[in-house]
């Protein structure tokens, strides 16, 4: 028996179907409903990818709203000198930095999930008479030219980072405001 020398990876010229283990039975084994069920499963895969995108947008809307409100509150508290100085005032901001990290991880998780879903959709399209998602991806330059198409997740990744930067700067301002006032960091 001859071993494959690809290290378990499918060469680029082969379709990704074997690597995904997409087909469980041949059309002959499955029977006369194969084409109909294949198309129904394709439609379900597209719908599920769309639902993940909708959930991602809901998560972004939630975090954007929370962070916008909290940034406004904290900026006002600093301006009005109502926020504790030094580490006392900085600790709540650390929680906001953690919130930004969680937001960023959720965005990445949704991106990874949708990447997998679209890989399956593209593999299913190889079994169908038309491949609209594949054609669309080619028409958009496969995401290689940001002037032609800039994936939303590339932008989404920066929003939590920018809020994190603003919180970090706010924390520095709070810590600096406590400098010389006798406040010391906790031990």
Number of helices: 7
What sequence of helices (H) and strands (E) makes up the elements? HHHHHHH
Q: Based on helices, strands and strand pairing, what is the structural class?
A: mainly alpha
Q: What shape does the CA trace take?
A: elongated
Mean model confidence by pLDDT: 82
Uncertain spans: 1-12, 180-187
Distance between the termini: 65 Å
Rg (CA only)? 25 Å
- Mind summarizing the main beta sheet? none
Quaternary organisation of the protein chains: single chain
Proportion of strand residues: under 5%
Share of helical residues? 55-70%
Give the total of beta strands: 0
Domain module count: 1
3D structure, described in words:
By secondary structure, this protein is mostly helical. Helix content is 67%, strand content 0%. The model is unreliable at 1-12 and 180-187 (pLDDT under 50).
Structural key phrases:
single chain, disordered N terminus, mainly alpha, 7 helices, 187 residues
Short description, anyone?
The protein is an all-alpha fold.
Write the layout of secondary structure elements.
Layout: H1 17-20, H2 27-30, H3 34-79, H4 87-125, H5 132-139, H6 152-156, H7 158-177
Helix pairs in contact: 3-4, 3-7, 4-7
